[in-house]
Amino acid sequence: MTTAISVSGLVKTFGRTRALDGLDLTVRTGEVHGFLGPNGAGKSTTIRVLLGLLRADSGDVTLLDGNPWHDVAALHRRLAYVPGDVALWPTLSGGEVIDLLGRLRGGLDAKRRADLLERFELDPTKKGRTYSKGNRQKVALVAALASDVELLLLDEPTSGLDPVMEAVFQECINEERERGRTVLLSSHILAEVEALCDRVSIIRDGRTVESGTLSELRHLTRTSITAELAGAPNGLADLPGVHDLKAEGDRVKFEVDSDKLDAVLQALARTGVRSLTSQPPTLEELFLRHYADELAPNGKHTAAVSR
Amino acid sequence: MNSLTGTRTLVRLALRRDRIMLPVWVVVLGLVPASTAGAYDQLYPEAKDRASLAVGGNNPAVAVLYGKAYDLTTAGGFTAWRYGVFLGVFIGLMATFTVMRHTRSEEDTGRLELLSAGVLGRNASLTAAVLVSGGASILIGLVQVLAMAGSGLSATGSLALGAGVAACGLVFTGVAAIAAQVFTYSRTANGVSCAVIGVLFLLRAVGDSSPSAQWASWLSPIGWIELSRPFAGERFWVLLLPLVLAGLLVAVAFQLQPRRDVGAGLVPPRPGPATAAAGLRSPFALAWRLHRGPLIGWTLAMLVIGGVFGAIATGIGDLVGSSEQTRVMFERMGGAQGIVDAYIGALGGIYGLTAGVYAVQATLRMRAEESALLLEPLLATKVTRGRWAASHLAFAILGPAVLLAAVGLGTGLTYGLRIHDVGTQVPRVLGATLAQLPAVLVMAALAALLFGLLPNLTGLSWAVLTVFLLITLFGPILQVSQAVLDVSPFSHVPKLPAAAFTATPLLWLTGIAVVVFAGAFAGFRRRDIG
Ligand SMILES: Nc1ncnc2c1ncn2[C@@H]1O[C@H](COP(=O)(O)OP(=O)(O)OP(=O)(O)O)[C@@H](O)[C@H]1O
Ligand SMILES: [Mg+2]
Q1: Which residues lie closer than 8 Å to B422 by C-beta, 6 or more apart?
Q2: Distance CA B157, CA B229 (A)
Q3: Residues B394-409: pLDDT tens digits?
């Protein structure tokens, strides 16, 4: 088995809201897969479908070679889930919740549990709401990470963690990867995604807009170029892939689609280049392009890079 | 910014959130008393009927439930007697739920914190809740006065009854406001407020039925409604008691409020164990942890209630034993032959409805868990939906059995002790109370069905239970048609021990419950969680 999760054409509607609108997602076994998208894009909904909590309207979903709606008990033994909003029972202590969830999942590793509690600096004797948001998340994280499972489904697991704890979390996920576990990580924290994820999928309005490794995705976005040319920048604006051209005499400033960079540089070289700075796209730009409407040209860059 | 800034906004928000609930309370509680006015003349047209009614009404066994009758020869006096106590209880429930929904529950869900971050004075939330609940109480009283006076009852009496009920609502607004400060979770605060209502109901039950302990009624705000004697030589000064008490209670609540943090209660939570006990490893073990507190509280309460009602049963036979008219009265109440047996039969119905309240509450715990996002992480483990639901429904099914046994035991024991016949009475009374179980299960099953099919409408379970309650309590005396009586599963339970035991209706009820439960499971397996 090389595919842990494979979703294609997934549709889920809530009344008139079309939360998922033909979503595709492939997560390979053993990889840490980033799951990104603006608020309301459908990340949590997808994860809930994967957990068999929601019933898909249409589309094919395979999870660990099983059907998430029908093979619930068998599949859930092999995965752990950290929800986006962690709620705890008011009368149960954090330690009790960790043990309970671990046991219901089929057992947890006591040594690893102790180790994680220490690393996350979590007091397991507090009860329910007396935990802060971040500490509630730690309870769910410890419960998930201390279980012996193949697949971790993490829905914004670090949105309440402080930077020190974020570092601990990243260490833990890297250890999970070394153990050969598969992780689906939904997150809004780009640095975390950049540090952890082998591949990412970006979704918007319930549809997958990009999927691939980060370098592949970078390739799809624009590089900014500032250059001083030997002559007038004739015809530069007409070259494919050139955007937002500003010319002042011999100085030009523009953005170019990274996959058209080669052709454009050749054109510049023909005119003659005195100086040139190029700025590769930052991760932020990459995401902003997909997140915000005005920055995403319709359909032009929305083909998936790799599967 | 002062401590009340934002109160107006919160009141508006509360009225918007309660735009269905509050009008329902106002209309139902407001119009119920006026509705008897016409029925009275039809049911008891002759002076003879009224006199016989008066004899029955003065019977301590009847007084336990309905309060003392002061004047049953007029429609007004009849109304005040028949509904006074129940209106007091129900307006208390209205006030409790309303105050809690806008104070404690808001804090539980963290919504209040969100609001407090805006411009809200520290007292705004409590003030708004008190204003909404107090306002609703007064409005209910006003509607009652207008409706009763409008349907031809004396204006003075209408005013006394309406004002008494409204003032009772104000008292329970104060009780709930204090409970909301003291306890950390709305579930606990709600439970304690309801327990206070129950205790005050019992206090006046004792006072109204035992000549030697009449003072007990004076200790209960629910008793004050009848003690102001609406339609029977009104004593308006009695109404000062609830007004003063309400003022004091609300003042105490406002004193307590600054002593605690938002989201916390005055009773600080204790730390728990660092690891779970070995037994906490199944959905059922978790359900036990969640249900055991309420179940133990309810069981004790039922034992006490049973004990009180059983002790009162003793004198009934002697006091009115020979009156043929009383017998008629009891039969109208849903009882059968022997006076005491009829009393126990009538109690059985009330116990059944009370156990029904628990059954609905235990069933709807599933929805509460789901809405609080506590179901998702469990279903992400190997626990299946069916197993999870079964572990909660175990409490909705076995819990009422335990409660009915407790209340039967309590009633049978005290009654048996008084007449020196424990050996016979305990099993007889237990039989009468346990016979209610199938009807209670139908109620639990209906709530479960709503949970399985229409999770957003689980609140309707309470409406269904209220309809059953109105039919059982007031149907027979208002002589509604058999078809209407048949709607309530509680009408089908044989009125043991007087009536002959017949298994057929009980088997039918059980069968219906099983089928409805099956439908609930089927629906729940199919639907989305969340
Ligand atoms: N139970 C529900 N009923 C109705 N609409 C829903 C429900 N759950 C989700 N939605 C809608 O589906 C869409 C996707 O929501 P989802 O929670 O999956 O987004 P998300 O990508 O997780 O967002 P975020 O980053 O804010 O967590 C949203 O428009 C949301 O309003
Ligand atoms: Mg989400």
Answers
A1: B412, B413, B416
A2: 8
A3: 999 999 999 999 999 9
pLDDT tens-digit series, residues B253-299 = 999 888 777 666 667 677 888 888 888 999 999 999 999 989 998 99
Same domain, A242 and A182: no
CA B286 from chain centre, in angstroms, equals 27
Residue B221 near residue B65 (C-beta atoms within 8 A): no
Judged by CB atoms closer than 8 Å, whether chains meet at A76 and B382 is answered as: yes
- Percent of chain B clearing pLDDT 70 (strictly above): 90
Give the type of residue at A267. Answer: A
Residues of chain B contacting residue A54, judged by C-beta atoms under 8 Å apart: 528-530
- In the sheet with A199-204, reading across from the earlier edge strand, the strands are A79-82, A151-155, A182-186, A32-36, A199-204, A207-212
Evaluated on CA atoms A213, A216, A221, A226, the torsion sign reads: positive
**ipTM confidence:** 0.82
Specify whether the CB–CB gap between A53 and B529 falls below 8 A.
Answer: yes
Q: Give this prediction's pTM.
A: 0.82
- A199 and A243 co-located in one domain: no
Asked whether residue A260 falls in the same domain as residue A289, the answer is: yes
State the residue range of the domain holding A204: 3-216
Cβ distance A127 to B379 less than 8 Å, yes or no, reads no
- Angle ∠(B299,B217,B201) on CA atoms, nearest 5: 30
Say yes or no: B255 contacts chain A, CB-CB below 8 A: no
Tally of domains within chain A = 2
pLDDT in tens, A3-42: 899 999 999 999 889 999 999 999 999 999 999 988 999 9
